[in-house]
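Q: what sequence does this backbone want?
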């Protein structure tokens, strides 16, 4: 998910904050840790270039926390639901507003904890979300332009009103239900919108042939998409961020998101679109 905070990153090159050494990455996790494993693999294979420095979860039961610990990375469990409740339980405007206040307070406290950690251990250059809670407030503001999210839907598909079609919690099932021939993962810059930030990269497409819009088929398809589309999408984006290849233009696409430049060249909505491995050789 993306955030519901304030402001978009200003135009210009998306830059790291530390000088020299590996790109220092913080990861916010919720589930099994597939994207975390991708980042840990980059850190293992190229330790001079990438370092997963901190892992944080909104809950205590995410398997990704154990993945981090097994790799010697500091990992923090959370108590978000105990403090905030669940968004699905907020059934009217007043309850939803109260939930958002509690969620912002929780993430503001997390931001203060990370800030204290950075004072002792050095700054984080990039925050990667594999995270099932909306973020707003100080955490979003401080990492503006340095927080990215992996989303299992093609965010370049718009409706007749120029709104993104495949946002929210179940984009794979929605794509299958709509009869889309393929799905793909989008990596986007988290901003004030809900899944509306500038799309930096899209992973290779995966055919939906033979799939039905059932929960089981959607789940199986998304697992396959993690292998085919998630990993190359995330790897490319992190490498491009580390090299300083990514920039935001002053111009916007029809959906209101910023045009992304890669090595100075403007890209269409969807950013860098990766093909299958065989297509890139």
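A:
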């Amino acid at each position: 998910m993306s955030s519901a905070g304030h402001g978009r990153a200003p135009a210009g090159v998306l830059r790291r904050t530390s000088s020299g050494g590996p790109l220092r990455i913080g990861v916010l996790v919720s589930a099994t840790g597939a994207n975390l494993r991708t980042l840990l693999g980059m850190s293992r294979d190229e330790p001079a270039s990438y370092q997963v420095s901190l892992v944080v979860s909104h809950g205590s039961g995410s398997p990704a926390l154990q993945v981090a610990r097994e790799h010697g990375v500091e990992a923090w469990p959370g108590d978000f639901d105990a403090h905030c409740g669940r968004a699905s339980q907020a059934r009217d405007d007043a309850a939803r507003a109260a939930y958002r206040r509690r969620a912002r307070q929780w993430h503001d406290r997390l931001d203060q904890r990370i800030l204290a950690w950075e004072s002792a251990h050095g700054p984080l250059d990039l925050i990667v979300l594999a995270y099932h809670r909306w973020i707003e407030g100080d955490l979003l503001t401080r990492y503006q332009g340095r927080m990215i999210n992996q989303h299992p839907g093609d965010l370049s598909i718009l409706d007749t009103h120029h709104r993104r079609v495949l946002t929210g919690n179940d984009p794979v099932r929605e794509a299958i239900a709509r009869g889309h021939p393929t799905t793909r993962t989008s990596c986007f810059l988290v901003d004030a919108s809900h899944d509306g930030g500038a799309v930096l990269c899209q992973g290779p497409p995966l055919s939906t042939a033979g799939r039905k819009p059932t929960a089981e088929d959607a789940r199986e398809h998304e697992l396959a998409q993690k292998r085919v589309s998630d990993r190359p999408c995330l790897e490319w984006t992190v490498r491009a961020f580390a090299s300083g290849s990514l920039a935001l233009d002053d111009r916007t696409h029809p959906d209101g998101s910023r045009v992304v430049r890669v090595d100075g060249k403007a890209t269409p909505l969807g950013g860098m679109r990766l093909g299958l491995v065989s297509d890139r050789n």
